[in-house]
Backbone:
């Protein structure tokens, strides 16, 4: 089976499961983790059992996993007593990190201790990493809310100067392949090389990178997302090819 780990409310994930029905794709949500029947064997992982969609299966039946869930949301744990949801969400997060790390099948993307779907990088870290490997970047500004006390740490967000962003293009990397949709075809090779290099440095299998491109002012990095919400048909096919292998 092909497992898609996602939120119960993730419609694109459900669309992917339907698209991949010939590969026995199944949707794994945090609700499944509350169903009795899970068994994780530390010393003999192939004996482990999972419950997905109400059905029991062996771990060795899983041919690949697409992770579309960065972390467990307390609000989604409607089957858990409200007072216990914070604790249960943390426990589910820890278990999923362990379980996913123990799988030997292809996984998109491998989890980190702070994010199930890959690197949990802020915009500043993406910009810093892009600049370090020679990708042009734009100026970044961090905004701190003045309505929140300094004791509480404030509420902050990072943005790039929007007046510099023109003709944005998104390039999606799947393994060693890149996909883009742009009217500036002569710039695509350069941008695809940037995207591939950034994905490699970040350690991701799936990464969407947005660039601003302008014939006069040049192109520069805008943002990156290791868990893109929209998956095009071409990208979906590339994910399957990556999981199936050569």
Residues:
């Amino acid at each position: 089976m092909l497992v898609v780990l996602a939120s119960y409310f993730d419609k694109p994930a459900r669309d992917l499961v339907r698209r991949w029905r010939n590969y026995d794709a199944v949707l794994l949500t945090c609700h499944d983790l509350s169903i009795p029947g899970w068994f994780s064997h530390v010393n003999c992982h192939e004996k482990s059992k999972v419950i997905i969609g109400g059905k029991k299966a062996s771990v060795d039946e899983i041919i690949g996993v697409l992770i579309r869930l960065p972390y467990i949301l307390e609000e989604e744990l409607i089957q858990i007593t409200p007072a216990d949801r914070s604790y249960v969400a943390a426990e589910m997060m820890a278990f999923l990190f362990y379980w996913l790390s123990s799988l030997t099948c292809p996984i998109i993307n491998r989890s980190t201790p702070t994010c199930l779907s890959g690197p949990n990088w802020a915009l500043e870290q993406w910009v810093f990493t892009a600049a370090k490997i020679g990708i042009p970047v734009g100026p970044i500004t961090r905004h701190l809310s003045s309505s929140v006390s300094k004791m509480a740490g404030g509420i902050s967000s990072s943005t790039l100067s929007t007046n510099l962003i023109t003709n944005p293009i998104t390039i999606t990397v799947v393994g060693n392949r890149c996909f883009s949709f742009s009217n500036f075809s002569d710039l695509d090779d350069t941008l695809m090389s940037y995207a591939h290099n950034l994905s490699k440095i970040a350690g991701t299998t799936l990464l969407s990178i947005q660039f601003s491109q302008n014939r006069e002012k040049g192109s520069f990095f805008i943002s990156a997302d290791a868990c893109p919400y929209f998956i095009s048909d071409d990208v979906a096919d590339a994910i399957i090819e990556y999981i199936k292998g050569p």
Observations:
- The first strand starts at residue 2 and ends at 5.
- The chain has five helices and twelve strands.
- The mean pLDDT is 85.
- Residues 85-102 form the longest helix (18 residues).
